[in-house]
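1st attempt posting a full record on here, be nice pls
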Amino acid sequence: MIIEGRTLFIPPARLMVFVLFLLLVCIQILDVHSTLTASAAHYETNKSIIWLGNWIGFTAAVLTIKAASTFVLVILFRIWFLSNGTHDREFVFSLTLITVFYGFIVSNNYLS
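the predicted structure (as tokens):
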């Protein structure tokens, strides 16, 4: 990519962290969808959603918990962005683990 006559180079680890953050947001959206469209034969196992659902209703509880999780991701993204690449390896490792395991959970929601 060329900007004002200069070549813009994005280190691969930095790009990967950005992609992993985007993937986590997409997985969050898929998790909300899979949870809200689950058949009556399935039940929620997240105790925080169950507890909050007793107070404000199931749909509102799911949306509230997922919004809070997404807010935490935004804060982590801001911390990462301000680190200027000093912790890219740590973020890649952590976000890869989270993305893989969360992806398995969401895919299980759709497959079961």
